[in-house]
Design goal:
mainly alpha, Hypothetical protein af1432, two-stranded antiparallel sheet, 14 helices, 4 strands
């Protein structure tokens, strides 16, 4: 049995039929319809993964797909022509160029850490701390980001990237880190992190690499200047010294995280 979200028919009438609770299609519905019309122009049919549509659609009620619903077309099992094609042996630079843009926040964070004279591991951690956010999955992005990077960076760097997701919710006056005002705006004054975040914080606050992770949060909150324009090339030497680029390319080196990099290469691959 195949599962996925059926693409809505073109036109508002089809949208109203698919979303019976709406008198008029919402902006999201219209975006889905536009995407559907674009996908119809492809030689291969794109079916969104369940994770991609969860929330908009209840995954426990996902529609079953059958070959009869494909209108004689084949499913996409390779490069999506709507995306920039990745080279055969992708490097970290290729992912920044073709999957992680816009990455100005990460570049700013690393530039601030470099200007402050921090250790190169801290600078690299700042540069990579949100790659899951901008290229993969938002929820638990620190954990996903650490898992993506563990085969290629020092353990201190990946640990700090995992921990920054937790530490950002807890102030540390010793380094001048306060709870971000933007979080009050984003989540409300009564927001309280989940119990697993509190439990992780109690473990992380006494860890030997605590300050490496804490410095990510410190250099994170000041890295939202729309006028700043640091370049990835500014960090070429640091990446070369501290990122173990596989010769086969990210996604093809048989590391425990290779499948995650392949997912970013082919995010719409059916299986």
């Amino acid at each position: 049995m195949l599962y996925g979200r059926p693409m809505p028919p073109s036109g508002d009438a089809g949208l109203t039929q698919d979303y019976p609770g709406s008198a008029k299609p919402t902006l999201s519905d219209r975006a889905d319809a536009l995407e559907h019309r674009m996908s119809e122009e492809l030689d291969r049919l794109v079916v969104k993964s369940v994770l991609f549509t969860s929330g908009d659609v209840d995954p426990s009620r996902a529609a079953a797909l059958s070959p009869s619903s494909f209108a004689g077309r084949k499913l996409l099992m390779g490069d999506d022509p709507r995306l920039l094609r990745m080279p055969e042996a992708p490097t970290l630079f290729d992912f920044f160029e073709r999957r992680f843009n816009p990455a100005n926040h990460l570049l700013q964070s690393a530039a601030i850490a470099m200007k402050a004279g921090h250790d190169e591991k801290v600078i690299l951690a700042c540069l990579l701390h949100d790659i899951a956010n901008i290229g993969f999955i938002r929820s638990d992005h620190g954990y996903w980001g650490a898992q993506l990077l563990e085969p290629y960076v020092d353990e201190e760097v990946s640990w700090a990237i995992r921990a920054h997701q937790v530490l950002r919710f807890f102030p540390d006056e010793s380094v001048g880190y306060a709870y971000p005002e933007m979080y009050v705006q984003f989540f409300g004054e009564d927001f309280e992190p989940e119990p697993y975040i509190h439990a992780a914080y109690e473990k992380m606050r006494n860890h030997r690499w605590y300050m490496t992770a804490r410095l990510i949060t410190l250099n994170d909150i000041y890295a939202f200047d729309p006028k700043a324009a640091p370049k990835l090339e500014d960090f070429t030497d640091i990446i070369g010294r501290h990122f173990k680029q596989p010769a086969e390319g990210l996604g093809f080196d048989d590391s425990p995280a290779a499948h995650m990099w392949r997912t970013m290469i082919w995010p719409t691959k059916f299986l």
